[in-house]
Input
Amino acid sequence: MEPNVTAFAIVFAAAMLFFIWSAYRRFRLIALGQPDNRFDAIGRRIWNMLFFAVGQRRVIKRTFGINHSILFWSFIILMIANTEFLLHGLFPDQIALSKLPDGAHHALAAIFDVVSILALAAVIIAFGRRLLFPPAYIDARSRDAFFILSMVAMLMIAFFGLHGTEIADGTESAEDYMPISSAVSGVFDGVASDNLETWAGVFWWIHAIVLLGFLNYLPYSKHLHVLTAIPNCFFKSLEKVNTQTREEFVKGKEFGAGQVNQFQWKGLFDSYSCTECGRCTDICPAASTGKKLNPRIVIHDIKTNLFKNGPALASNNGKVVSLPLIGENQEGSVSEEVLWACTTCGACMEVCPVFIEHIPRIVDMRRYLVETKAKFPEELLTFFENMEQRSNPWGLAPAERVKWAADIEVKSFEVDKTEYLFYVGCAGALDARSRRVTMATAKILDAAGVSWGILGKEELCCGDSLRRLGNEFIFDQMASANVKLFREKGVKKIITQCPHCFSTLKNDYAQYGIELEVFHHNELIKSLIDSGKLKLNPGSDGFGDIVFHDSCYLGRHNDIYEAPREVVAAATGHRPIEMPNSREQSFCCGAGGGRMWMEESPGEKNINVARTEEALSKDPQTICVCCPYCLTMFEDGLKDKNADSKVQVLDMAEIVVESLD
Output
């Protein structure tokens, strides 16, 4: 079918000009963001884009993701068909699929025909899912979603209608290589040739209008991600997103992000790339326990705020906004309660198919509240004061840091004499329950003949909670003091028993120009077992069935999953039992992100109780952890469930120490 070239050229030109104008309006707002280098290591970035975006690596990890992947791959393939369709409409005598050699023409036509029916089937399944069995974590009744799905369906129907009428009219000899269109052509048996030509024209124009309409609707819909998701995989961080950017403290400067243009540009691009699939919400421990935090909505609000304030920010140098970024009860503003509910567990970022970085944006807004506005939950006031004055959460005197070692001989770290600094940490030194873990770790190190020492009264907090809570100013002072002390002492290797200390010293302190080898105690213990330096006698029956919990800051933030399980197996003779949510999908204990020092937000239940219930579902006698925060949260959870007399919580080191020869 040959369209009216002049009429189509006018429609095409108008549609493309409007699309270019719309895209410019949207994408120029990204430039309002702060600098962030995402153009290094081009080769690795191209691979990431191909592997994760084109390959749909994370999408297909869930069952229904296969349906989306079919739709995505169909969309990519049909881009070729639709490009040919548009160019043929403009240049019918020069460009046409039929002008290719028969082999190529027939092969492409067959591919387009089969792919189109796959796309239509995927759309029908998506409709059915939203109407009949929608998951709780998506906006199942979204008009935007139904409109987009309807447009895709109309494109496929118009494709089959066009080719079906052409086959019926004899203008397209495709019976042997376009099976679906050939079947559709049967609908038009007996229709006069003139009428067939009219029907072909109707289907052609439906396809053209819907295709150009779809393109122009994207910049104004939640499906803007169609244009940005693939590039966002190119811009993904090349390293684990397990730290924050370091702030510069300049007089007169606002800290954190109180306006949308104070985010880095990648954070703004993230908001355009959200597919609103809801996977982040589904796995978020705060959302799962009925808190107001919804990671998907946080990203949506950033995008909405950018659309609302962006044009004004671009014209008045970023000084005037009409919609606050942090506010209450309106779309485009993130409430303070939402921001403080986050445990920074990283589950949202682990499952996001397009690598949106939720946690840095939340912490950016926390920084603004804490450092610029001095607005934070009341219970944090004492915590911040204790950290600033005594460098520990409880405000205890430095002399208290060595009392855990009162009954054993512990040496101070000495440069060129001691190999490892045992960085005990605040909990390990000052919390009565965690001191038992510290003692167990010390005995294990001695049994293996490890050269280790402590800083004693000189040890300062690592500052993890400060940074995650947004108090970057005090964190910066603390980190700088620690780095200076490490350099003066000649510290090169550090052992920690706390994943938060481990991650902070390993990842955050790298921003301060110091090179440290940091080992969590489970890593070191495993290496000591593997090398034969640590001899164990497995078989103690004092633990019963052991269920293992993955610490967020050990697992998702640092990819340490197997070492603690192997150590438990070596110490007991059998691997621990896995919870339903484990490893990358582990459910947070509720204490990360500084939540350890805060009352939990209202919800259906506390996060630690939800995780404790999951552990108890496996009917264990012991819950094994590798983190002092997790230890506390599980013990509290067991008390809440009246199960503390039947189930014990032990750190991995406490299990290992019982099996020493």
